[in-house]
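Throughout this review, each integer encodes one residue's backbone shape. One record appears below.

===
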Amino acid sequence: MKSFLSFVIILLSAMCSVQAQTLSQQEIEQLISKMSIEEKIGQMTQINLDVVCEGEIYKLVEPHHTDPAKLKIAFEKYHVGSVLNCGGHAYTREQWNKLINDIHQANKQYNTHGIPVLYGVDAIHGANYVLGSTLFPQPLAQAATFNVSLARKGASITAYETRAAGIPWNFSPVLDCGRNKAWSRFFETYGEDPYVCSEFGKAVIIGYQGSYNGTADEYHVAACMKHFVGYSNSRTGWDRTPIVLSQAELHGIYLPPFKAAVDAGALTVMLNSSDVNGVPVHANSYLIQEVLRKELGFEGIIVTDWEDVSKLITSHHIAATYKEAVEKCVKAGIDMCMVPNNFEFADALLALVKEGKISEARINESVRRILTVKNQVNLFVKDNTVNAANYPEFGSVAFQAEALATAEEAITLLKNNNQLLPLNSQQKIAVVGPAANSMTLLNGAWTRTWQGTDTTFDAHERNTIYEALRTEFQHATYWKGCELEQYNRNESKLNELKKSDVIVLCLGELPSTEIPGNINDLSLSRAQLDFAKDILKLGVPVVLVLVEDRPRLVREIVDECQAVVMAYEPGDFGGDALAHILVGKVNPSGKLPFTYPKYMLGTQTYDHTYSEEIDTQFGNKAFNPEWPFGFGLSYSNVSYSDLQVVGNKVTVKITNPSDRDAKESVLVYVSDEVASTPPAVKRLKAFKKVYVPAKRTVTIELELTDEAFQFVNAEGKAVFEPGSFIIRVGNLEQKIERIR
């Protein structure tokens, strides 16, 4: 921690010494006035790195390096303003520096106005496309910490290591609320609750950008809010499929995280690739102009997602030609097109301007925003040559310690019958299952490659679950036992497991994201369920460890497991964190940031309405998840007492009767008993991660905002109605009357 604080002090000093903006607004306007229409359109064009490297798109020459002839076309002919992505896999920092410097030098050679290139990349859980960088737990796991300070620290480290590669723009965070558990990008969210998503999104943006005023020095990056808006709520859970949102859902669930991010100074936003209420978002002037620009007050760059302009033709079928698609998107309000594998956007937009269908004034609006953001991330301040010596903390022990601490606070204990956990290091344990000895499963997608499944790029110096447990136990054996999707029973191997005192059964799913991650069934694979059932028949206590993108159904096996641990995708140090928890070096403190379903159709969120609780016997037991939102055990069995609510102030006492220090996430829920539209049974309105020493009682104070007592009505308006409210904390509740 002391090392991290030193790092923060260094960065703050650097921020003070570097001028945040190097051009005045007047100078930006003068620059725009000197640019040709072709140069302006180039600023709105974003191409894939593959376009300027030797080889074919997606089939680059190894090792990847730039092609001078292609660079000339990109910057002399098309005046490209932005480049993104890696060439399919992560690079060393040195290779990134060479690639980025080549791009900057080529742009400098051909760009007569000295306008820098804005390079962007997806750094979802660390600088995941830079070899040797610090990999954190995935965002869903970070949310399980309910500790926004950890998320902010992790984001600042990610920014530092991304900038060390020469990249000033990060396509993160994902602010989509994870309401559909089957969604392939569920693990990229901060869970199902809009307040949690807002608080974590805000913290991460400040961590990325380093300030609240929308600027980023050479140690920080421009954040990108993703994906505006409603992307995670497809009806099937399949990626990039239609979404239907009422005004109440739009304004009450999906917009709040974006509003919080805009208020925190987020510099850029990426649009949802899907259609919302029948209109693709990147051609939706209502969502872009009326909601994002006017209602939320966003002033930064709006960028499309991958090939989304062309998808108006190929996927949405609302445009017959590419030029027509470009016209729809630009008129709707996009600033930059992630084309990304050719220059067709620039050609089409130039033709539209010459035909008088799009005015140069409209082009100037986007160019102004793009140049402003380039200015805000300090790109005009120097020649942009990357110097590795300026980033001595890259991949440091201090950074790794933060990733470990985050994983330790994220991992969630869901069941612990008869206090099986923590285990004794003298016990004989067998570590089994397809997730037991895999760094790939611990890290998930967006890890060195897009889908994260190429084991070539695994950090082999890090510990898998088995490798970490082997360092904690004198007697630890390993057997994979089954593949993720295939199981061949081995009687002799199963019999050997009977010699164990405890079996740590590690199950999960293959990392995936976007369309490759679409599924038809939330159930854990049949192969793993059958394997688990054979393990459970042995009569040896079983600790089930779940390493998952999203909550996979485990109803068939969970009752017979003595302990259950949700590991999420905890990153490079997840194996160590889990081992520390299982052996008792760390007291678990994670809580579920989503409702873990028991049945395929039982995927309601915790903030459901009362009508969703009516069961077939007309009782109130229909809402029956495997584990509820906010659930998580510790080894301390802390208790709550003396809840007091005075005005907007909530105080409660927390007692830790154990001999172990504990961390506890205190969650405050508000229930509106009667409203003009059906209220949720409860909604989270405040939370705080607190330290509770052994054998001590502490008093915790939290503040509810006035907005905590409002709801969004059917017209999408936030309203307050006087009446009775119930405040819930832990197992306590207090009813209050509120007239304003």
